[in-house]
Design brief:
By secondary structure, the protein is α/β, with parallel strands linked by helices. Helices cover about 40% and strands about 15% of the residues. Strand 6, helix 6 (about 170-185) and strand 7 (about 190-195) form a beta-alpha-beta unit.
Length: about 280
């Protein structure tokens, strides 16, 4: 019996889920040696949403490079999760601002506990499409309300990930959240993507304009991870790698020389990076 489709309304928070979902589907098709997320295609088929406009532009330069960016970010964060659970096989893996992302599930070793955190409207959709199991929890939270810390089992260690989330946070919010995590989760780590002010301004241009915000300066951006973030912590170790080329040299037949050149610009001029903080 066919399953009922889940309707996504236009101009809602839930609509923001479909863009990264389509991106992961495009990644799987364009860069199969670098990234595989066949679940993304399955989820798209279960949504009542018009993907035609995205599909029409899928072959364009910007869309294909955007897909490559998504592929690299997902594989980078998977590397960090897998690296942690090698030594903490029963750890908790926490996906902050999860959307319909399954990075944690793609790293499942059969014994980790997975916590997917997002706003209530998002978790409502996730529960319909990706329901909880004994080891997978979908939790409605405001990430800035640190009471959610108490919902996470930290007995066997915790690795946190966040993909495309913290660009929408202010510096003050991050300056409160990350040090609080250091105190609450000693011996644990977080990995997330960030970029410099120039890149954040481009990423948030439309959103900031629609929200009536006149200055981007208060939003979270990073030029030098250790220098910028180091003073926030007591004992944390901060490292970073290039977002596009820090984990993979992209010398794959599916990636053109032009895209490798663009990747160097992204990691350099835009300072797109994966930041890892060991608490």
């Amino acid at each position: 019996m066919a399953m009922d489709k889940v309707k996504i309304e236009k101009n809602t928070v839930q609509e923001t889920l479909v863009i990264p979902l389509f991106g992961r589907k495009l990644c799987t098709e364009k860069y199969p040696n670098l990234f595989q997320d066949k679940k993304a295609i399955e989820l798209m088929n279960r949504l009542d949403y018009d993907f035609d406009s995205m599909a029409k532009n899928a072959g364009g330069f910007a869309q294909r490079f955007g897909a490559l960016e998504v592929a690299m970010r997902e594989s980078d964060l998977m590397w960090e999760v897998n690296d942690y659970i090698k030594t903490h096989p029963n750890a908790s893996v926490v996906n902050m601002g999860c959307g319909l992302d399954q990075t944690a599930e793609n790293c499942d070793n059969g014994s980790i506990t997975i916590y997917n955190l997002d706003m209530p409207d998002v978790i409502e959709i996730r529960n319909l499409l990706l329901p909880e199991t004994d080891r997978i929890k979908n939790i409605s939270v405001d990430l800035n309300d640190t009471s959610w810390f108490d919902k996470i089992n930290k007995e066997n260690g915790v690795v946190f990930i966040a993909a495309g989330v913290f660009y929408y946070f202010t510096k003050e919010q991050m300056k409160a959240l990350l040090p609080a995590m250091e105190k609450a989760f000693p011996g644990c780590k977080i990995a997330f993507d960030a970029a410099n002010k120039r890149a954040v301004k481009l990423m948030l241009k439309t959103w900031v304009k629609d929200a009536g915000i006149t200055s981007i300066d208060k939003y979270f951006s990073v030029e030098d991870a250790s220098k910028d973030l180091g003073p926030w912590f007591e004992n944390a170790k901060i490292t970073s790698r290039g977002y596009m080329l820090g984990y993979n040299d992209l010398k794959d037949p599916s990636v053109s020389g032009g895209f490798r050149f663009m990747s160097k610009i992204a990691d350099g001029f835009m300072n797109m990076q994966i930041i890892r903080i060991d608490f």
